Amino acid sequence: MTKAIKLVGIGNSTGVVFPKDILSRLRVDKGDTLYLSEAPDGSFRLTPYDPEFQSQMALAEEIMREDRDILRALAQ
């Protein structure tokens, strides 16, 4: 899918106007934060999820799986 996104001036900055259907598909609304990341091929990805937080959670899940017995003992 290709959609035109309009850049608009906001004071001394530039903003982006997203169509409602894109906001709905991203499950975001006014005031939410979006994250822009660059892929190895030079393209960009826009997501409502913080990639750094996602990698930290993956690491935490790995630790919880590996050290399940230790965590269970600490919880008692």
Short structural description:
The chain has one domain (6-75): Pemi-like Protein 1, Chain: D (Ribbon).
Characterise this structure.
- The chain has a single domain (6-75), classed as Pemi-like Protein 1, Chain: D (Ribbon).
- The protein has 3 helices and 4 strands, in the order ββαββαα.
- The longest helix has 16 residues, at 51-66.
- By secondary structure, it is α+β, with helices and mostly antiparallel strands.
- The strands form 2 sheets. Strands 1-2 form a two-stranded antiparallel ribbon. Strands 3-4 form a two-stranded antiparallel sheet.
Topology:
Elements: E1 6-10, E2 13-17, H1 20-26, E3 35-38, E4 44-47, H2 51-66, H3 68-75
Antiparallel strand pairs: 1-2, 3-4
Which range does the strand content fall in? 15-25%
- As for the number of domains, it is 1
Give the number of DSSP strands.
4
Query: Main sheet, how many strands, which sense, barrel?
Result: 2 strands, antiparallel
The general outline is: elongated
The tally of helices reads: 3
Calculate the mean pLDDT score and round it.
Answer: 86
Please tell me the CATH architecture by its name.
Ribbon
CATH class: Mainly Beta
Helix/strand structural class: alpha+beta
Strand order of the largest sheet: 1-2
Order of helices and strands: EEHEEHH
Keywords:
41% helix, alpha+beta, single chain, Pemi-like Protein 1, Chain: D, two-stranded antiparallel sheet, 76 residues, 24% strand, 3 helices
